[in-house]
Specification:
By secondary structure, the protein is α+β, with helices and mostly antiparallel strands. The chain folds into two domains: 28 residues; 41 residues, no CATH class. Helices cover 39% and strands 13% of the residues. It has four helices and three strands. Strands 1-3-2 form a three-stranded antiparallel sheet. The longest helix has 20 residues. It is extended and about 40 Å long. The mean pLDDT is 89.
Length: 84
């Protein structure tokens, strides 16, 4: 049997439905209190992510080069996009 990557999991239909129901309830509650939705990309330029929060935080970033040879990182939380 194939396994998911470490740190990832599947949500089968029953749990996915319950999870989506809860997420929609939370969204509606936040919107009632005046919060606006925000969606940001999971990738950032490496220079934006690295060195800001220390060596331990840098270890949490998956780095690679895109087709244009730019260094890119997969962010692990929303801190940088919210600050940007």
């Amino acid at each position: 049997m194939l396994q998911n990557l470490k740190g990832f999991r599947d949500f089968l239909p029953e749990k996915a439905i319950a999870r989506n129901f809860l997420i929609e309830k939370l969204k509606a509650s936040f919107e009632r209190f005046g919060f606006d939705p925000l969606e940001t990309p999971a990738l950032e330029y490496a220079q934006i992510l690295l060195g800001k929060y220390g060596a331990e935080a840098d270890k949490l970033i998956y780095l690679f080069e895109d087709k244009g040879k730019r260094k890119v990182g997969l962010r692990y939380d929303q801190t940088v996009p919210l600050a940007r």
